[in-house]
């Protein structure tokens, strides 16, 4: 069966005055189900509230646009109230309860990427809402709700029936919400636009990697992530994950070209990619990208907490490690061609600026 790796845009699942929730569907992006990956996006308008919920999947959240407030409750711990802004990445393990509020003046957009190995549906997130018309209270009879929380019948009716919104609601401008608290961001959030760079190539590109060292909760989530930004016309060298991880990539800004090569040297994807699209690179497949004039950036998760990549160009390329005689025999070329090939790209780089 041929793999369909075509990048896709998400579809709206639900929404209203407060904002919308979008998701990528396994029926349109089969690699989601194949790789047990979920992907979704939350867009909140001003004063929009994504009501408290928990999910059947661990995720990494990345703030694509805007600013606001997030509430995070780990099992049997106190609520953390965190101010969030563009570039923030947050690891969300199993069992965490979250809410999201747009306290800013512009749209707040958050990307969610995660694994669905234990989810109800492969390739999809299922959220369980604590309030609203589809909240857990609505499924229990008034008797059960009353006895569980020691409430009279009248209070139960107000508690269960007052909020008619579903998933996302818009609050009145005068409604007060919790303010972010000093220290609550520590250990929960890493801003990828402000964090120290793991790779920085002049006129080439920059990388910030999320792992267990700079965001310990990544270990509980079970996969790593990174933000990559490459400059105009620059190339991200061909490479692959050598620890059997999948690469799930969302284009944050800009555009460019991508090629993916699989088994038997077959090119399985060659296309133009733009902001808002998502694609998945299968295990061990080799991928490379070249940015358009405006440059390109992407946020990815890799399905292991501390991923290892092999790049096929640059000083640390596997080609540099192989014996000259092996390369000459394998490529069936003379020593002069092999030496020319070996002598190129001697810098310790994974990004290549355009040639002058």
UniProtKB/TrEMBL annotation:
It comes from the Eukaryota. One of its GO terms (molecular function) is nutrient reservoir activity. SUPFAM superfamilies: RmlC-like cupins (SSF51182). Keywords: Disulfide bond, Seed storage protein, Signal, Storage protein. One of its GO terms (biological process) is seed maturation. The keyword Iron-sulfur does not apply. The keyword Cytoplasm does not apply. Signal peptide: none annotated. Transmembrane segments: none annotated. Residues 3-157, 195-339 form the Cupin type-1 domain. Belongs to the 11S seed storage protein (globulins) family. This is a seed storage protein. This is 11S globulin. The lineage of its organism: Eukaryota, Viridiplantae, Streptophyta, Embryophyta, Tracheophyta. The gene is LOC130509788.
